[in-house]
Amino acid sequence: MRRLLLALPFALLPLAVAHAHDEHDHDHAHGTLGAHEHGVAKLNAVLDGNTLELELDSPAMNLVGFEHAASSDADKAKVAAVRQQLEKPLQLFGLPATAGCKEDQQALESPLFGDTAKADDDGDAHEHGHQHSDIGAHYQLTCANPEKLTQVDLAPLFKAFPATQKINVQLIGPNGQKGVEATPAKAAVVF
């Protein structure tokens, strides 16, 4: 596990460089918002031995439909319902049953969940006067038969959160590293 976590920064270096470039050039008119773009989420999937780590980062708008602090009962109920969905990764990520994956650990964070971290990196207010809020989910699973884990189907995630139109996926596994773009029409990503 330690080797996996040490390798991750190097493996994701191309994404960091692209992010830095986007951050420098982003414009607050509609279009490119660098790291925070409504309808677009990011997923890192790392398979190392029998350990699968999944890290989802999404604008709150994609998951709950808003980014402001939940003050009304309806908003609080929506945040609670989304948190419950995110607490069940085996229902959100379609993994082959033959791989025998079981959840070991999870961590969810967002200002909407009462966390103070996870606001948009640059802290700028959006053009409509509100802060960007992201939701982050990190899962660690152990797979009894990792050789059977050839793909991750994101269709259940797209179905649960229909405002998510695209997921930029960074995969690291036995066949190396690659980046792919998943959409509702092309939801399966292959290691």
Distance between the termini: 19 Å
The average pLDDT score comes to 81
| Number of β-strand runs | 8
Coarse shape: globular
Largest sheet, spatial ordering of strands: 3-4-2-1-6-7
- Tally of separate helices: 6
Content of β-strand: 25-35%
- Radius of gyration over all CA atoms, rounded: 17 Å
Count of discrete domains: 1
Main β sheet profile = 6 strands, mixed
Classify the helix fraction into a percent range: 25-40%
SSE series = HHEEHHHEEEHEEE
Structural class, by secondary structure, is alpha+beta
- Contiguous low-pLDDT stretches (5 residues minimum) are 9-34, 117-129
Task: Give structural notes.
The protein is built from six helices and eight strands; from the N terminus they run ααββαααβββαβββ. The protein has one domain (40-190). By secondary structure, it is α+β, with helices and mostly antiparallel strands. It has helices at 2-11, 13-25, 60-64, 73-86, 89-92, 155-160; strands at residues 40-48, 51-59, 101-109, 134-143, 151-153, 166-173, 176-182, 188-190. Helices cover 27% and strands 30% of the residues. The strands form two sheets. The protein has a six-stranded mixed beta sheet with strand order 3-4-2-1-6-7.
